[in-house]
Amino acid sequence: MIAATQGNAPIPPDELSPGHRRGWVRTRVRRYLPAALLFLSGLVLWELIVRVFHIKRFLLPRPTEIIGVFGREFGTVTAAGWFTMREAMGGFVLGAVAGVAIALLTSRWTLVRDGLMPFAIAVNATPIIALAPIMNNWFGITNPMAKMSIVAVIVFFPVMINMVRGLSEVSPGNLDLMGSYGASPRQILRRVRIPNSLPYVFGAFKVGTTLSVIAAIVSEYFGGSRDALGVYISQQAALFHFAEAWAAILVASFSGIVFYLAIVAIESLVIPWHASIRAVADT
């Protein structure tokens, strides 16, 4: 295991010595190669199963067919994917901001937390298929705000719960130390509680990235702009164009992965001091 660090900060690969650089490359290959081989093996197995057992294309198209359709419909599916991703990201921001704000209130006043928690649990337990018609009626079926609102509701709960946990589960020793310095509750919040909550919050953000894409696409099944990815998938499936539908699903999966990796990158910039980030940087 190569631990190329300078103090507490990892050394960039281009600043390593040739020997350490080769070790850094070997470590990265050992880490990511098994996952890449497993992914490719899954695609090959998928292709073989469909061919050997003569599975009908409306049940499960071949990966080569999906990739071919993806190349042919690239402009259409990527435009639809970007339209839906704007809804997912907009709703994610709304839900995350609301979750953080409510968490700050509930962590400070226990009465507010006890009063709001049942409502938060009830809203989170409401399925998307129940919320979609209501939001479409409120904002309009083609209004992106209808889909953003559904995404915000889905993202809100995990962000709030994790933020409250991070604000509350603080080491008593840290609180005693700040108390010995005569720190005010606001100073303790800013210097101890909020930094302690950041790993929890980013964990919720990473969960929220995938939830937001799922919520946006599912909400579009109940009506929306013809430019949306969910509408495209439902229309192509209704026309028995299943390879086109799978190509759109491929775009949705890729969008979710990119969104997740963006949050991971932001996390490494905001909390580089956290043990999980340093462990990844040192491997």
Q: Class of the largest domain, according to the CATH hierarchy? A: Mainly Alpha
Our count of domains comes out at 2
Averaged pLDDT, please?
A: 85
Annotation, overall tally of beta strands: 2
Number of helices: 11
Which oligomerization state do the chains in this entry correspond to?
single chain
Query: What's the Cα radius of gyration?
Result: 23 Å
- Which word captures the global form? flat
What would you give as the CATH superfamily of the largest domain?
A: MetI-like
At CATH level 2, the architecture of the largest domain is Orthogonal Bundle
State the secondary-structure class.
mainly alpha
Distance between the termini: 6 Å
Spatial strand order of the main sheet: 1-2
Please report which band the strand proportion falls in: under 5%, 5-15%, 15-25%, 25-35%, 35-45% or over 45%: under 5%
- CATH fold assignment of the largest domain: MetI-like fold
Given as residue ranges, the uncertain stretches (5+ residues, pLDDT < 50) are 1-9
What is the percent of helical residues? over 70%
**Sheet having the most strands:** 2 strands, antiparallel
SSE sequence, one letter per element: EEHHHHHHHHHHH
Keyphrases for this structure?
single chain, 283 residues, mainly alpha, MetI-like fold, 2 domains, two-stranded antiparallel sheet, 11 helices, 2 strands, 80% helix, disordered N terminus
